[in-house]
Amino acid sequence: MTNVEKKPEARPPSAQVAPEAPAASAMPAGSPASVSAEALAHGGGAWADFRRRVGGNRGAMIALAVLALLVVVALIGPFITPADPNAQNLRAVLLDPFSPGHLLGTDQLGRDILSRLIVGTRVSLLAIALALLVAMAIGVPLGFLSGFLSGRFDQVVMRLNDAAMSFPPLLLAIALVGVLGPSLRNAMFAVGILMAPRFLRLVRGVVLGLKEETFVEASRSIGTPTWMVILRHILPNTLSPLTVAIAVTAGYAMLSEAGLSFLGLGVQPPDASWGSMIREGFLYFGRSPWLGIFPGVLIALTVFTFVTLGDGLRDALGREERTES
């Protein structure tokens, strides 16, 4: 039998051969390999991806809105109070809520409760900011140096940090305020010192992990100066967990301020804070329970706002890390 040579099948004119995929080496230099697929699809990088994830968390957005409202009230509070928060009127003591001229009633000295709550918003948020500032000023630099330098310095710092965390926080705060004197500034300074070990441990752990990352080792291998490695790679990657810690710790700072003010070690009369208003309302709880209920509700709402915001940030960061991995 003779072999019949097969002719190649004719290809339709409209058919086209798909081009081959480019090799991995053809990728442009500097392409971010750690950016998630969602970030690449929408554009903007990992930070834009993180903002989208936080924006998609309804609880976190509600918490942000409540926090923004509290900040606005704190800023313009003295200009929108219906009455002088410290003006006494002994003819109108312990008025019930919805009384004429006093929407939330008056306290034992005839002072308008709504006005004092509005002014107390600024005091309470200022107390939180002061405590966080002190805690971060102490904990963040020490934690960074401890994690980056390691060795003997790290051992000494961590032993001191463990010793500081072994004391009961409230008792230590009372002792510090007793030495420094009762005032809002001294109370928040004491609370900030108590919160500093938390930030120290957090930052130290993050820096220790970042030192071993491949991109840090690669940057060092090509001769990048240490200060540039810190500024470009280590410091930016500590901001995300630090932001979550700030949101969560703010609620603890508010509870600490309220507790110290309740004991008479925080804000001093005639200034108003939510914690001091609870202390005053406790003495008249049987006659006028709303004196302590109104500031207590605001404290609970604010703490819940900070905790919800911290949970939303943690969820967004966790999803981003899982996607990138």
TrEMBL record:
Topology of this chain in the membrane: Multi-pass membrane protein
Membrane listed as a keyword: yes
Transmembrane segments: 60-80, 125-149, 170-196, 242-267, 288-309
Basic and acidic residues composition-biased segments: 1-10
Subcellular location: Cell membrane
Main location class: membrane
Keywords annotated in UniProt: Cell membrane, Membrane, Transmembrane, Transmembrane helix, Transport
Region (Disordered): 1-30
Domain ABC transmembrane type-1: 121-310
Family: Belongs to the binding-protein-dependent transport system permease family.
Residue stretches of biased makeup (Low complexity): 12-30
Organism expressing this protein natively: Pseudonocardia lutea
Pfam families for this protein: BPD_transp_1, OppC_N
Name the UniProt record assigns to this protein: ABC transporter permease
